[in-house]
Design a protein that fits this description.
There is one protein chain. It is globular and about 55 Å long. The chain has a 5-stranded parallel β-sheet. Helices cover 43% and strands 15% of the residues. It is an alpha/beta fold.
Length: 303
């Protein structure tokens, strides 16, 4: 029976820990996995533009011995030509897996139902599971563990926030989410993260007050406007600027490292000087996208 990865919400702590270990193993022993996808082809369907996601998947699949076919649904004029389920069913006739970066999670659900091959969520409006796995691989590498650590996310409650909550809870990492009023993470996802955290001993805290982030090991932020959101920056800058991640916030919280999934907007959600500082883990996160994704593909396709 084929398996998908649309979100980690239905995973167990044990399975998530094994996947994290696999990502680390693939990173440090790439030759041992160089033929995992030999003879296999993966379609990368992109509704949204991408730098890190496309390049990390394309090069990563090649390193596993496979081949990726890139489909830009906007430039290729595929949008609206046929129903999502028909597109997925057709792609499954040729490909061994579908990696999809889409606007709506509903599109992924249609793909999953129609395709007889694994579907991987490379980003949607609700989740970004590949980013979440890469980020906790980065935390693991930096601290030697995830259990008992604390990650404080500051900014807009979005798809990245949701996956950080879920994967972090599964890996025993305490979660703090600080957002401006009205920009909180989805309440249902927060509640589910708390249920998962109860299994690992982690805590989940949400707040509108920056003081909630005190004591965090890592401060994490993301862009204030998600890709595709055409809200003028001027309309939200006054709301979000007090939540900027900067040197003063790092000192106030005591956090030793800063993370951002990128693309980053220097001197808006995070200062440029902090991005370039010794406490920045941004490029390590970016590199780990490939290793985390390779672990996901190895898990889904090598059995």
């Amino acid at each position: 029976m084929k398996k998908d990865l649309l979100t980690f919400a239905d995973w167990t702590p044990e399975a998530t820990t094994r996947l994290l270990a696999l990502a680390s193993e693939i990173k440090h022993s790439p030759a041992s996995y160089s033929q995992v996808l030999a003879g296999k082809s993966v379609v990368g369907l992109f509704e949204k533009p991408s730098l890190r996601t496309r390049v990390s998947f394309e090069i990563g699949i090649n390193k596993l011995g496979g081949h990726m076919v890139y489909l830009d649904s906007q430039a290729g004029k595929l949008v609206g030509r046929e129903d999502a389920q028909d597109m997925a069913a057709n792609l499954a006739c040729w490909a061994d897996a579908i990696v999809a970066r889409v606007y709506s999670h509903d599109t992924l659900l249609q793909f999953s139902e129609a395709a007889r091959v694994p579907v991987v969520n490379a980003l949607c409006d609700r989740y970004h599971p590949c980013q979440g796995l890469a980020d906790y691989l980065t935390v693991f590498e930096q601290f030697g563990n995830t259990t008992g650590r604390t990650m404080a996310y500051i900014g807009d409650g979005n798809n990245v926030t949701h996956s950080l909550l879920i994967v972090g809870a599964l890996l025993g990492c305490n979660q703090v989410v600080v957002t401006p009023p009205g920009h909180e993470a989805d309440a249902g996802i927060v509640a589910h993260a708390r249920t998962l955290a109860a299994q690992t001993g982690a805590t989940v805290t949400t707040s509108n007050d920056l003081s909630a982030a005190e004591g965090a090991d890592v401060i994490y932020t993301d862009t204030w406007l998600s890709m595709g959101d055409d809200t003028p920056l001027s309309a939200i800058k006054e709301t979000f600027m007090p939540y900027q991640v900067n040197e003063a916030l790092m000192a106030a919280t005591g956090a030793s490292h800063v993370m951002h999934c990128q693309p980053a907007h220097r001197d808006l959600e995070i200062t440029g000087s902090l991005i370039d500082s010794d406490c920045s883990l941004l490029m390590q996160q970016a590199e780990n996208r490939m290793h985390g994704q390779n672990a996901i593909l190895t898990h889904l396709l090598s059995s």
